[in-house]
Design goal:
mainly beta, 2 helices, five-stranded antiparallel beta sheet
């Protein structure tokens, strides 16, 4: 029985592979048949990566960053029976405004996907006279209605918490600039209605470790646990041969998630395999989603690899929480409420 509880529905058909007997280091292990989505997955799309999936009915559904053959990214819908083999639609998702009129972003990338009160919300980075956050909702994955853009430019890496906290929707994001941002901290913002956003709080900046000494950004939707909110995020190191994106882990306070209770000083996953080290952008592990089963404690992690592939890794709630706590190193700003 799990000592640490995940407060979420059970997912009996979660994709899973047991930890190899010879595994060492952080308790995150890769799927042996990675990557699960390769190059040129559908006609007109050269690469799919940095994508989000969620349980839906008796299977799984996902929103996928598809890099079109003209180089412009957009979002595609995919479905799977087992969470591993995916059928991706050839046509990108057709968004409409709240009056039912077509309302497509000029580009869209790095989507996240969250279920709140039987409504599914998609967040992504898009053009809003500069890079910023797009937001849409659906109940059936047939009709996709765009909502007001939460923030002005420049912003990336947005994801909603899977429930309201103190009566408000909470969204993590990473303010940025127009280019390949060489800085970045994670902030949260609150809204009573998904229209008006405020009460902004700083969550975490770059940590004490070299692997995340340039910038950090939120990844998968936080997982509610008996220890707090489990956040899997990406941290970036600037090296002489370019940026290296690794996956980190932190535990946020359950009622005030701008407070970081624990933060792992070690990376949980860093580029080591060929599909992480070689690709359109080499040396990238970019977490975007998890599927987690509250009964067994199993967690499947979906991450983008080298801006070219979708890969899958696994962990267990007891192991990952205990590892983060054992190797925790928080900064002074981590433990603040995030308001100055």
């Amino acid at each position: 029985m799990n000592k640490i509880k995940m407060i979420s529905p059970s997912v009996k058909n979660i994709p899973w592979q047991d930890k190899p007997a010879n595994h060492s280091g952080a308790p995150v292990w890769r799927y042996s048949d990675n990557p699960i989505i390769h190059r040129n997955p559908v006609e007109g799309v050269s690469r799919i990566f940095n994508s989000a999936v969620i349980p839906y009915r008796d299977g799984f559904v996902g929103v996928f960053r598809g890099e079109q053959v003209n180089g412009i990214p957009n979002i595609y819908l995919g479905r799977s029976k087992d969470g591993i083999s995916w059928e991706i639609n050839k046509e990108k998702i057709l968004f409409e405004d709240e009056n039912g009129k077509p309302f497509m972003p000029k580009y869209a990338y790095d989507p996240r996907l969250v279920n709140i009160d039987d409504t599914y919300y998609i967040m992504w980075c898009q053009d809003f006279y500069g890079p910023s956050i797009g937001l849409a909702k659906t109940k059936d994955f047939k009709k996709f209605v765009r909502l007001e853009n939460p923030f002005i430019p420049y912003n990336r890496n947005a994801v909603l918490f899977p429930r309201k906290i103190n009566g408000n929707y909470i969204m993590l994001s990473r303010p940025s600039d127009t280019g390949h941002t060489p800085f970045g901290d994670i902030f949260l913002s609150q809204s009573p209605d998904l229209v008006y956003w405020g009460k902004h709080r700083h969550v975490m900046g770059v940590g004490n470790s070299w692997w995340e000494n340039l910038k950090v950004g939120s990844g998968a939707a936080p997982i509610e646990t008996s220890e707090g909110w489990l956040l899997l995020y990406h941290g970036v190191n600037g090296t002489c041969s370019g940026y290296v994106y690794s996956m980190g882990g932190a535990i946020l306070d359950i009622d005030n998630p701008s407070i970081v209770k624990y933060r792992c000083e070690n990376f949980l996953l860093t580029p080591e395999e060929w599909y992480e080290e070689r690709g359109f952008v080499p040396n990238v592990c970019f977490p975007c989603a998890t599927i987690h089963d509250s009964d067994s404690g199993k967690i499947a992690i979906y991450y983008g690899a080298a801006d070219s592939y979708v890969a899958l890794a696994f962990t267990h709630i007891d192991e990952i929480i205990n590892y983060i706590k054992k190797h925790s190193s928080v900064t002074e700003s981590d433990t603040e409420i995030g308001k100055r």
